[in-house]
Amino acid sequence: METHFESNPLIDKLPKHLKQFIKPQDYKDYTPINQAVWRYVMRKNVEYLSKVAHESYLEGLQKTGLEIENIPNMYGMNRILKEIGWAAVAVDGFIPPNAFMEFQAYNVLVIASDIRQLEHIEYTPAPDIIHEGAGHAPIIANPEYAEYLRRFGEIGSKAISSSHDYEMYEAVRLLSILKEAEGTPETDIKAAEDRVDYLQNNIGPLSEMARIRNLHWWTVEYGLIGTVDNPKIYGAGLLSSIGESTWCMTDNVKKIPYDISAADQSFDITKPQPQLYVTPSFSHLNLVLEEFANKMAVRTGGLSGIKKLIDSNSIGTVELSTGLQISGVFSNVIEHEGKPVYVQTTGNTALSYREKELVGHGTEYHAEGFGSPIGMLKGINLAIEDMSPRDLRAYDIYETEKVILEFEGNIVVSGEIITGTRNLRGEILLIKLKNCTVSHNGTILFEPEWGIYDMAIGKEVISAFSGPADVNSFDMITHVPSSTTIKSKSSVERQELENLYKNVRDLREGKNATKTIENIFEIVARNHKNDWLLSVEIAELAKKENNIDFLNKVVNHLAIVKQNRPEIGHLIDNGLELFLESATA
Question: Which of 109, 206, 356, 382 has the highest CB neighbour number within 10 Å of its CB?
Fold first, then answer.
């Protein structure tokens, strides 16, 4: 298989759990119609966006090696993106939000390598190479914006999701696939739309991931920059939609100064946006992002952070004040006076320090979960982590000593100390006990029969975030999408049309073609009455050859197509305007 893919040091350094989403780009899968769709959209975009897009867009097209005439291949993109410190990988449609964000944190652009159908040339709800390649790639050539994108990924990948978020991801992914696939029964689309509508209307409190995805949508995807009265486009969703990039500049779309309130403004991916946010500068985007991050559990920790992880029902991490990191699926927290005094995970758990798993504390050792008190000892102002060797000796927290440690919140640990684990600064991270019992108000949390007890040391939870501290601690190769993109169906009629598109492409490029331009047009007009883009390309060639009689014949045919299909009349006019002074036939 020809993949047209050149790796890049950034891709080589990606962790395995991200590499599972990467798929090869087989350039031969792109048909002549696909190439014509890319060419049409790019020509219209460059012509129109040169007036309304941020100045970085056109500069970025050149820097990132994107061509107007040809769908980009990953080989060329990676070779050139390498020069600006980025890379690109191909994926299959939507990938989970956390993974998408994490790719950005590694300076890797995720590109859905499929391309929209001709029938969806203006807009598709499914991510495609026009949206990702022609939308995202050019703007990252702007260093200030590229750093925002990287920083957004770094912060966003730590955002805690809810089970509802994953349901919504699966529902939107399926809907986008069904809407983009040709011949999908209306009943299937309606069922998928109903599912998305139900989830959107029963969303409940927004999770961190839902809120930061809103910020992503209103900036990276649908952002405007400048002033409310004179905005420019920089969002990839607008840059890649020849319909919405025009619509968004009208008074029909409300323009709002961008601030953190955008985090609470949800969106519908299947419809044009009724309002858009305008940032005064790319630097302002970072200010809002930091303002949002300051309220995330990754920075605030505490009881609320643990509760968010419990609600997520997926792997997350809490970090204690000593730097000890507990990673797993959190199932319970005991609280006292608004603070966590005991945390519990279920199933595979790993303990780390500074994102590196502690020796002997991986998921094999903690396969049944992990529980530990957190906080201060009752009646003692000095936290265990702050005790000097003399303090530890005074409180019998010492090897071979039998101790009874009563924590605030009535958590009691009794047992015989075996040893302790310290960090590089000499602070105690863990205390290992045997013959240990842990209880809370008489309820047993750990029994001696269960084996050795490892007690985490930390007076408070300073951080809580999605995913493991050390990505190597868990088997993260679990990506099994519930739906896959649907390829165009082959037929004798479609194959004939594809061959005609190829002939026109060959003629335009000065290659030998099996048919003359007149022969091609005759077959199109007779056998493919609904097709319009090929006739536009034929008219362009006729104009280039100054064959005025033939040009008029083709334009008259397109006028009939417009009468029969008024919904695509503006697309025909827009295509003709690229090379004709007047396109109102």
Answer: 109
